[in-house]
Design a protein that fits this description.
Blueprint (H helix, E strand, L loop, with lengths): L46 E5 L2 E5 L32 H10 L2 E4 L4 E4 L2 H9 L3 E2 L7 H6 L5 H19 L5 E2 H6 L2 H9 L7 H6 L2 H6 L6 H16 L2 H7 L4 H14 L5 E6 L3 E3 L2 E3 L4 E5 H4 L30 H20 L4 E2 L7 E2 L5 E2 L3 E3 L3
Parallel strand pairs: 4-10
Antiparallel strand pairs: 1-2, 3-4, 5-7, 6-14, 7-10, 8-9, 11-14, 12-13
């Protein structure tokens, strides 16, 4: 369903939206040009694959050229996160990688691929992996020492309620276009003193960096994370009932659960500074490594019923944000909390439009493109 067909003329917030930065928000992906593949082997055999970065002793088969599954010698082909159809439904590919190819070299990504939770979590935090940055990682705590959390809470609450009231009287709305695209930018604009009417300048200029430093580009990530969060909540009437008047602690658990199940950043890239043992072999020093954050969050070895959105689960965990202090992380959580409060206060009967179900799309970053709702029920 196209939300453009359901938008009332003149009733949106404005004709312009904040620009969404292109590229991976944590680090740039390697070139997508094909590379010379490493030597393959049969499942279960130890293989030494010659790849950029040197020799890597493996305990699992590696990706070979397409069609290698039927090639002489029994070469086995691992699926790629960039295979056709992965944008709409990457989860089957991720499951195969976790179970059969937990360490594989992908020539499309020009990188080794890690897909299991334990390996991805290690790569995001271990000092032997370099050239990357997540909001909440240790550098954030050193960079931000004078952030007023109470002020951030106040501007987030005010911005969320302004946006919710603007769409409350409409018969139908798209929360992605009219709410999620505006709340992160509007919150930061208010926090740094940029007038609401000048929000576009914030996104293009230096104002976000004044607050969030290296994490300033996280506005687009927070938009996608918020869209996924609202999509997960509104897709289940039981979740709507449970979270409508929930305390902040429960909303925070639901937010973390959405980041686990549907992280806004699906693939991050790191580089090894030394040889690193992982669950299926040893990564060579100086190698590019693609971390499948989206796969890690649905690892059945780490989470029970990993495909299920369950804010009450007793085995939580998310890899989108680190645990250190960072304004981008704080704002993301506050935006999730006050988005629910503002939307349900302004629209107590808010629900998805008849026949509409959120559809997540994207390879590097991922979220619903639209959330068509009936504000009046």
């Amino acid at each position: 369903m196209s939300h453009e067909q359901n938008r009332e003329p003149g009733r949106g917030i404005g004709d312009e939206r904040p620009e969404v930065p292109t590229g991976d928000p944590w680090t740039r992906l390697p070139s997508m040009a094909p590379a010379t593949p490493p030597v393959g082997g049969r499942a279960g055999e130890g293989v030494s694959a010659v790849v950029p970065g040197g020799l890597a002793p493996l305990a699992a088969p590696v990706r070979t050229v397409p069609g290698g599954g039927g090639a002489p010698g029994g070469r086995i082909v691992a699926p790629s996160p960039l295979d056709p159809g992965a944008s709409r439904d990457p989860h089957g590919i991720h499951r195969t990688l976790r179970e059969k190819f937990p360490l594989t070299y992908d020539p499309l990504l020009r990188a080794w691929v890690l897909s299991r939770y334990a390996d991805v979590a290690t790569a995001l935090t271990d000092s032997r992996f370099t050239h990357g940055h997540r909001p909440g990682d240790p550098p954030c705590a050193r960079a931000h020492v004078d952030v007023d959390v109470a002020a951030l809470r106040s501007v987030t609450e005010r911005t969320a309620y302004v946006l919710a009231r603007r769409i409350a009287e409409r018969p139908q709305a798209d929360l992605v276009a009219d709410f999620c695209h505006w709340l992160p930018a509007g919150t930061v604009a208010a926090a740094v003193g940029v007038p609401y009417r000048d929000m576009m300048r914030l996104v293009r200029g230096r104002a976000a960096g004044a607050l969030a430093g290296e994490c300033g580009g996280q506005i687009a990530v927070r938009e996608k994370a918020l869209a996924s969060f609202l999509g997960n909540v509104l897709a289940d009437p039981d979740q709507v009932a449970a979270l409508r008047d929930a305390p902040a602690g429960l909303v925070g658990r639901a937010w973390a659960e959405s980041l686990r199940r549907d992280p806004p950043v699906q693939i991050a890239v790191r580089r090894t500074a030394a040889e690193v043992p992982v669950s299926a072999g040893v990564l060579p020093a100086g190698a590019s490594v693609a971390l499948l954050v989206g796969s890690a969050g649905r690892d059945q070895e780490r989470f029970r019923e990993p495909d299920r959105f369950d804010p009450f689960r007793d085995d939580p965990g998310q890899l989108t944000y680190g645990t250190g202090f960072c304004p981008a992380v704080i704002l993301a959580g506050l935006e999730a909390e006050y988005a629910l409060r503002a939307l349900f206060t302004a629209m107590p009967r808010l629900r998805l439009a008849d026949g509409f179900r959120p559809v997540w799309t994207g390879l590097i970053t991922r979220a619903p493109r639209s959330l068509i709702v009936r504000p009046g029920g």
